[in-house]
Amino acid sequence: MWPLLSGSAVQLGPVFTKQPGSVVFPLQHGENRKEVVFSCEAQGHPPPFYRWKLNDSFIHPRPGSRYSLVGGNLHISRLNKDEDVGIYQCLGSNSFGTIVSREASLHVAYLEDFKTHRRNPVRVREGQGVVLLCGPPSHSGELTFKWIFNEYPSFVTQDTRRFVSQKTGNLYIAKVDPSDVGNYTCVVTNTVTKSSVQGPPTPLVLRVDGVMGEYEPKIEVQFPEVVPVAKSSTVKLECFALGNPVPTISWRREGGASFGRKVDVNKASGVLEIPYFQMEDAGVYECVAENSRGRNLVKGKLSFYAAPQLTEKPQDVQKTIDDTLVWECKANGKPKPSYRWLKNGEPLDHMEVNNGVLNITSLNLADIGMYQCVAENRHGRVFTNAELPIAPDFSQNLLKAQTLARQGGDVLIECKPRMSPRGIISWRKGKEALRENHRVTVLDNGSLRISNVTRLDDGLYTCVARNQFGVASSAGSLLVKEPTAITSPAGHLDVTVGESIVLPCQVSHDPTLELKFTWFFNEQLIHFGNLWAFFEKVGGRSSGDIMIRNIQPKHAGKYTCAVQTKVDSVSIATDVVVRGPPGPPGDCRVTAVTENTASVSWAPGADNYSPILSYAIQARTPFFLGWQAVNTVPKLLGGKQLSATVIDLNPWVEYEFRVLATNSIGTGEPSRPSKKARTRETPPRVTPARVNGGGGGHSELVITWEELQSGSGFGYVVAFRPLGAQGWMQAAVTSPEASRYVFKNESIPPFSPYQVKVGVYNNRGEGPFSPVTTIHSAEEEPSRAPGRLRARSVSASEVEVTWKPLAWSNRRILGYERLAGCSPFFAAPSQAPGKIMWNTSNSKVILRWDQVHALENESEVTGYKVMYSQDKHSRPSVVETNSTSLELSLPVNQDYVIQIKPFSEGGEGRSSRQITIPKIAGGLWRICRVMIPVLLCTSFLLSKAISKLYCCRFY
């Protein structure tokens, strides 16, 4: 047996040997080339790698960035006070897990200049107290303050009357004397950068309106009511008062407790300092200011606090699957610390944690890793590490029950047990240890690789994993299968458009394996269905043949048949050439034109695997229906010809041209049309066609022709004469779009024969006249009326009329005119009731309207119909009356729609518009005016076959 060792040493999780510390870095004004280094170093096997976080976000060192890693140390170059300030934390990781370091802060100490502006004088009376504000500029880091009196190096001396606060920087003068008059300048020093800046001077001026009298102390410099103090630190309390006389300052502890020896009261009792603060120094401290006018007092409580310190740490343990783990973590601190746990640097939110105790029941492989207890209060936090190893286990990654391999191929059997630390991997075949050779290899990760597999490699394989905490194994079978092979030869098919072909894909394979056939066309998967309607599967179980029906040029290309089984895959490719008519020529353009020729060129299109034999040119104009073949020079355009001259064109006509190519298979699609090109103009050579005429009004001769176009300045010459006359009368028509001329003369007899002809001209000259044709002048109206006129009433508004048609003489009878404006007999009223008024009272509605008067052709109005309903769509109720008023009894809680129409013997007349009467709401009269429509009657000509007359009626 050949064991696989995961390493020469026992694996260990990472443990920090160096952790980063907080840094306050001095940065001078305008300086940007400073570098900061945070240290981090850890031990472990394999050696840990490192990552860093800034404010809980990972830092990503890249070439050229300001961050770089040297070992585990983080280097920050070109320090930026806006981007780099924050909390840093190092993470150390190896294959066993991850731990996080303590947190380290980076603060950049700097001091900017004062804003450059003058300060106003401070005016006080003699004997009055005053406060001069320093207003330090933007900064970071601890500051100290001094004041210059008038000029450097004369500094203000602190005594019982003058005090400089190191908290605010302000200068306090308890009682101003004349000697205090002058300029005061605040000097600020950064204790880290050692740099100093001076503010603008503040003038102090005495007022001349009197002297300040005596007053009791007023404490201006105070300390907070509660001052938290860390263990072993130094605390300073400031206290100063204004007053007249100058107050005295004294300190005491509440309850009369004594100060320790270390307590220092200095600077004329303005500052109380307690170094190395301990629990017994906590309590309430009082500052008393008093003079002959009274006393004042402030007090504050110094509270003791301490960051956490571990008293009990969890220890590394060795567990197996399903064991229970209990780890306890304890720490001292004030206030009392809280606890949380991390696993591999991430919070353990789902675990049971109670007052620092971590309890994990039924351990599994997912619990392996590095654990850290974090004890913290608002003054700090501490970390402690513990490692959880696990004995080997295959429960989550068993070997595959069966692994299939192709005879002659390679196979990989994976072995992935969970164990910590990593141990030894070995293999068995059957009951025998598996020995490595030129074909059999155990990889570094424990997996087994067998090359050039044979039938003898069939069998049961077992992977065995062991470390110092236990041993486990998992087994699976290897089955060797016959390889799959395509028996159809690769080939090349040459077909013609429209044919149907079969592409073969026959295979030999292991009969126990299922086959999957997949076809690709030019590397694109073929989906058999509607979008691929030309393709159809025709193969059987061991055949993947496909048929292409009605093959087209777009189907030319490379076809690949891919065959897959669970153990292997093979493929074969066939190139298909589809010969078809040529593709459309390209770039068809007109290069030159004359009066009746155009030079056309083009580029060859795809020949679709059959050489182009000839080209043909077609043309289109606004005067053609569709595309027409044209004559060319040369007459026959061979397959190499890429230009030609089109002849026999008409002058001054816009033409488009296109080209078609032909090969032995057929003629292909035409090219895109060329841009429109107009032939040059010439004197007209073509006469207008379809010269004709006739019709028109009294004494008119109407001449018509078919429109032409031939050059700029184009027009027509119209010539005409009575039949048998010698001379011609002529008229010029200057509009090229004209196709009609009317000659009017009272001497023209009706329906007289005339000879006419039409010629053309343009700016280049005159053209020929059309052949002479004979037309007739306009006819006159018939001189006699039709005979045997009969009329029969059909209805109140319709009459049927019959007559005998007139006989033709030298005048043609074209039709008969329909009479207009017929008045119906006893017609219904055409006017609607107007000026409708109503009022409401209780549950009654009283309506009134103007009387409708009948027109001459209408029968007299005999009454009115009043229709009312609750809405526009319901069936109305009808009340008839022969007066112009009506009283209706209606419910008071409903809206009503009302219409009124007159009626007579001729029928019902026109209705008024709809009137809405809202719910009964008082007795106000309302008026509705209704427009009266006008009765219209249309007329039109009847053909000679119509002998009835109808009169229009409107309602």
From TrEMBL:
GO CC terms of this entry: axon; plasma membrane; side of membrane
Domain Ig-like: 14-107, 112-198, 217-303, 308-389, 392-479, 483-571
Lipoprotein as UniProt keyword: yes
Bilayer topology term: Lipid-anchor; GPI-anchor
SMART domains found in the cross-reference section: FN3, IG, IGc2
Keywords, sorted A to Z: Cell adhesion, Cell membrane, Disulfide bond, Glycoprotein, GPI-anchor, Immunoglobulin domain, Lipoprotein, Membrane, Repeat, Signal
GO molecular function: cell-cell adhesion mediator activity
Domain Fibronectin type-III: 584-682, 687-780, 829-923
Record's keyword annotation contains Transport: no
One BP term from GO: brain development
Region annotated Disordered, chain positions: 666-693
Pfam families (alphabetical): fn3 (PF00041), I-set (PF07679), Ig_3 (PF13927)
Predominant location category: membrane
InterPro entries assigned: FN3_dom (IPR003961), FN3_sf (IPR036116), Ig-like_dom (IPR007110), Ig-like_dom_sf (IPR036179), Ig-like_fold (IPR013783), Ig_I-set (IPR013098), Ig_sub (IPR003599), Ig_sub2 (IPR003598)
Record's subcellular location: Cell membrane
Protein family according to the UniProt entry: Belongs to the immunoglobulin superfamily. Contactin family.
Subunit organization: Interacts with PTPRG.
Protein name: Contactin 3a, tandem duplicate 1
Lineage: Eukaryota, Metazoa, Chordata, Craniata, Vertebrata
